[in-house]
Amino acid sequence: MIDHVSVGVSNLERAGRFYQLALAPLGLSRLITRPAAVGFGKSYPEFWINLRTEMAQVAPDSGVHVCLRAKSPGEVDAFHAAALKAGGRSDGTPGLRPHDRVRYYAAFIVDPDGNRIEAVTFPEG
């Protein structure tokens, strides 16, 4: 249903380095670099960061977050660890999250601009 998503960043170089490291465990790499945008993906840009030089820090209560699919709990763990090492902060440690209709394994991070990013997988069993 969704072809791609983008988030605003205040510093494209810093965010580019952050996302290059954080998204690598999910199999996403930097595919396109433009003066004011960077596109990450597997075969085409699915996740974009766009320079917004006047952007304020994203408010913690904004309610906005982007969720990216992982192939396994190990990828979720690696995403979380890589994001923290690259300068992000945890917004939910990796773990199983059982809910009424679906059981999933996820981790949540906040990038240096305050964007909330999740990695999720749906383990069997």
Summarize the structure.
By secondary structure, the chain is of the alpha/beta class. The chain contains two helices and eight strands.
Keywords for this entry:
125 residues, four-stranded mixed β-sheet, single chain, alpha/beta, globular, 42% strand
List the SSEs and their pairings:
Elements: E1 5-9, H1 12-23, E2 29-34, E3 37-41, E4 45-51, E5 65-69, H2 73-85, E6 89-98, E7 103-110, E8 116-121
Parallel strand pairs: 1-4, 5-8
Antiparallel strand pairs: 2-3, 3-4, 6-7, 7-8
Question: How would you characterize the overall build of this protein?
Answer:
It is a single chain. The protein is α/β, with parallel strands linked by helices. It is 20% helix and 42% strand. The strands form two sheets. Strands 1-4-3-2 form a four-stranded mixed sheet, with helices on one face. A four-stranded mixed sheet has the order 5-8-7-6, covered by helices on one side. A hairpin with a 4-residue loop joins strand 6 and strand 7 (103-110). Helix 1 runs antiparallel to helix 2 (73-85). The longest helix is centred in the middle third of the chain and has 13 residues, at 73-85.
Helix and strand string, N-terminal first?
EHEEEEHEEE
How many β strands by DSSP? 8
Low-confidence region ranges = none
Radius of gyration equals 14 Å
Distance between the termini: 27 Å
Major sheet strand order: 1-4-3-2
Main sheet overview: 4 strands, mixed
How many DSSP H or I helices? 2
Name the average pLDDT. 95
Helix content: 10-25%
By helix and strand content, what is the structural category? alpha/beta
* Spatial shape: globular
Proportion of beta-strand residues? 35-45%
